[in-house]
Amino acid sequence: MIQKGIFLEQNQESDNLEKLIFIANSILLITVAGLINSIVILGVHGSAVAHSTGNASSFAIELSHGNFSYHLVFLISSFLIGAFVSGGLIGSSKYKKENKYGLLLIVESMILLLGDFLYFNDVEIGAYAFSFACGLQNALVMTFRGSIIRTTHLTGIITDLGSFLGQKARGVPVEFWRIYMNFFQIVGFLIGSFFGAFFFLEYGTIMIWLPAITCFCLGVSYNIWQGHFRKVVNL
Question: What range does the domain containing 33 cover?
């Protein structure tokens, strides 16, 4: 009985640690997404590289006027290709420690730096690279026990928070960690967006290096942690 109690206690500690890691990752990722969104939107002459809905509407409006915008087609296509690459690297929307989140973040950081280099030579080509990177980031969707990280989809996060609060108000049992995770995701996105805009206005698109370096460090850190986790499992 004593051994069983110790096992249950250790299992509970492991469960709490797993939840904490997921919540921390979600807040960090969405803060980085806020940085990227604000810098790119302000830096590429208003091109909504992170939001394909707006580009699709703009394309349809241009088409109704008899204009076929190749620029908007390339923006939407590069976003789609980025999401495709992300889906291919991760292979699952369910949160798993062995998924290649670290590799994806490192790739994203490289694409952001490439986009910044291209931007200074050709604004439109730079925008396509940024759109590709945003597609990578947007497709990084993780599901964990019914909760979802939507890194740049603030509408979905606010919807989840409102839904959980509504259920709680009605007396439906809702784990509290789901509520505060969504709340801090929103705060993280706003903080990232604020500092992205602030630094852009001070230094320009060179500040895309800030989320790029952050993504790289997160990716490397995750790979190191993942390697340690695998060693523990093997032991």
Answer: 23-234
